[in-house]
Amino acid sequence: MSTVNFHAMKRIVLLVFCLFSTHIVVSQSFMQTFGINGFMDRYQSKTTISSGLAYTVRYNFMEKEKMSISVGLPMSLGGVAKDGEYGGYYYDASYLKNFRFMIDIPLVVNFNFAGLSTPDNKQLFGGFVGGGIGYHFGPVTKEKVDSYGYLNYDETTQSAAGPVLNGGFRLRFGKNDNNYIEARGSYMKSFLKHDADVIGIQLTFGW
């Protein structure tokens, strides 16, 4: 191979590498949403419902014209008061003491398709499906039999972790192409039998 051809090949390889690197940088993006959530912690025969605020971050590490693959953290924070501890229209000083907090932090990899799969996809409607692993700390209701044989319920909190499945849709609205609503449903199966399985719903706003 001549010196001229060798240098020409080096230039071609360098050019291809630069174009490929530029494509990778351009085809990655960061997106976020904020909104509300609801969770059902299923423990033994009782289901406890909590609610709060949701914040999701999504990083598309691979993008094409009508789809993307992303890694995300759809985080939630909220809780619920113990039954009968807070009611009416007055402030009860014991409210915070009897409030059971909820934290939900899953790490998921999703396949995103159609609208909002990327910031540049202007289709009206899109969706996503995927899974990962999650950690959940939330309210549960435990059944306990006292020394007299009566069944009682203990309202407390408990941690759980396990695989997560999630999916949902995105709907663009308004004059701004970047505004959209995202609805997400999820299910976490606890690794341990004595921990709660968790069903979650989120409704968030993206910009």
Automatic annotation (TrEMBL):
Superkingdom of origin: Bacteria
Protein name: Outer membrane protein beta-barrel domain-containing protein
Species this protein is from: Chitinophaga terrae
